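Exercise (ungraded).
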Amino acid sequence: MPTARTTVRRLPDRGVYDRETIATILDEGLVCHVGFVADGQPFVIPTIYARDGERIYVHGSAASRMQRTLAGGVPMCVTVTIVDGLVLARSVFNHSMNYRSVVVLGTATVVEGEEKVRALETIAEHVAPGRWREARGPSANELKATLVLALPLDECSAKVRTGPPEDEDEDYALPHWAGVLPLSLVAGSPIPDARLKAGTALPPSVRGWRRPRSG
Amino acid sequence: MPTARTTVRRLPDRGVYDRETIATILDEGLVCHVGFVADGQPFVIPTIYARDGERIYVHGSAASRMQRTLAGGVPMCVTVTIVDGLVLARSVFNHSMNYRSVVVLGTATVVEGEEKVRALETIAEHVAPGRWREARGPSANELKATLVLALPLDECSAKVRTGPPEDEDEDYALPHWAGVLPLSLVAGSPIPDARLKAGTALPPSVRGWRRPRSG
């Protein structure tokens, strides 16, 4: 699966290629960054996505420049990054981040029919598990206004850094604090819509939201 | 400053161009996603960055493919995205995210000499304010191994979504819960390095770390 284009060249010990690691990162991430080229200029746009087995789905307005460009089957890149912490070394030079990222290269195909509805369900469930059945499903017009793209996980790689700082041998004698400051994406208190009917219970998708999802 | 390439075309009410909004987003973000093209293939790579006035700096190993490619002055894109919350509407279709993102287009120049050291300080202070003076500064060899690039904020735009879900008129009668689940990047308990000297105090950069930085 790693090709010459996705083999991690720098710090190759951080390159991880097994499918389970890649799937775990893609399932925990919330937003991806999609790269594509238009008129020779690269663009990087954040968007929602979801993994379904050996592909990832991205969706958007059928009118968007990005969606229309990608639907033409041009080369694209989807990158998912999870920041796990700041790595604070004794030297400025050895400062780093703990993170997990996946890079997927390829070309997308447009998803239609039954698979399109399933893909939208997969995306909704990726963002907030349980939400698909808590909300009104898409109408025919809403489906028409939405473009869903599938990108196969044929050419992809992961890069992972974990653990403490790695200082130069002579720097361990320095008096500076060193260690890791863990970071994570955390949910605050839900803000009910102003027009919510009184007494509407908080649904499981909101009450139980966490990353990585439990179970 | 917004050009035809950075003008937000979809949902133009979400396009924000004033410099203060752009600066605030760039200063709060932690990681950027850099887009560039090699052999016709777009790549999107996460990396640390920092804003300094009217430019942003990215740094990396002088040996990295990305850094060497960008140093050649090819078109690049830097995108910073802050996820602020899940927007849960009564219909699946109107689900969204609250987020703030900045897209910068341009070509980088290599930063040398005095500015290079200042740029590294700016990056360290961006990630963990106060850290530059808490750690050992870079040696001549470490400076040589690091490539710092500057990208001017000449061509950039921001996109911001805030506030509650916007449902179709007829959907407000539905019984489904709707609202916003706020999300933020939160620091956990610092993990001291196993080889830390006993009694080393937690420094201000770690003790006080938060996004957005206070003050």
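Further reading is listed at the end of the chapter. For now, observe: Chain B has five helices and eleven strands. The first strand of chain B starts at residue 15 and ends at 16.
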